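re: that chain from earlier
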Amino acid sequence: MLPGTGMRVALVHYWLLGMRGGERTLEALCRLFPEADIFTLYCEPDKLSPFLRARRIQVSWLNPLRRFYRSLLPLAPLALESFDLRGYGLVISQESGPAKAVLAPAHARHICYCHTPMRYLWALYPEYLNEWTSAWKRPLLAPLAAGLRIWDFAAAARVDTFIAGSINARERIRRAWGRDSNVVYPPVDVESFRWEPPEDYYLIVSELVTYKRIDLAVRVFSENGRRLRIAGDGPESGRLRRLARPNVEFCGRVSDDELRRLYARCRAFLMPGEEDFGLTPVEAMASGKPVIALACGGVLESVPARAPRAGVFFAEPTPAALQAAVEEFERSEAGFEPRTLQAHAARFSESEFRRAFCRELAAAGVALDLIPAT
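^ sequence. v structure.
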């Protein structure tokens, strides 16, 4: 319930099947609205933080089939529209899937915090169709995607106010749905990360899915012999392990403590694919570590490329370009100052997120004096 009113608040999240950037943002929204209820398509409580497990979570009728969630996107509209949001005066959906499609009551304010319109329908659709989908699936995917884009465009009309998670996302929202939005960067618990003297390894922290282009880094490091550690798991895990040589170590999903240790002791953090914004480069900078990244997407907003710079960029997702960036980093490694990197990361703290998000809520008609203080 929104403090000081009788207004109930609903937080809609596409699915709760692990703890990634979207779920960390959901935690911040839960702290902003401590009495809010959560609605989600699927939930695996054992994979959530204790904080989220303690919340009131309403799952959809698809939840018993959650192990097949990647194949059930065509059913998501029906499941989302089945949520009963009567009695809620404020609905906040968090989007990089179809969460905005819920049917909010006519009297309610519906605000969508959007990390990106669905990648596999919009910005990355050509790659999904032509590079990452097997030939026999393409004739089936094309008409399905066309129908889902029509539905997705119509669902966007249900939202009163969009808030974009990055400038990159703002442009994607405009292109996909023709809607304007202001930018509020997602929160990172920057104070919980630390710097330690580097050990001789590079680090990737990522879901192992195709569009992250982890295979590019695996190929390059298998060839150059430098140590690479990869924290995360996903459907690409088996293929990536087959590509890797012994100097590439797969850590799987690690605890928060172990993740912070990996960040603290790495030489540099790698991001070989495009991200909507990308919380992991901010976590790396909060650990005082520089970033080596593909020069596109949200990382251009979070990692300064000019003095005092916080990383090294490469222009094309090719082995030669990534190898050249690694060599450039090693030539200038001593010039990266941990405290300067941590100062860059501080711009994305949860307190900054809360301040900016409250500003946008006020602009959308939700009074600031009704929101609990930090």
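Residues 190-347 form a domain with the Rossmann fold fold (CATH 3.40.50.2000).
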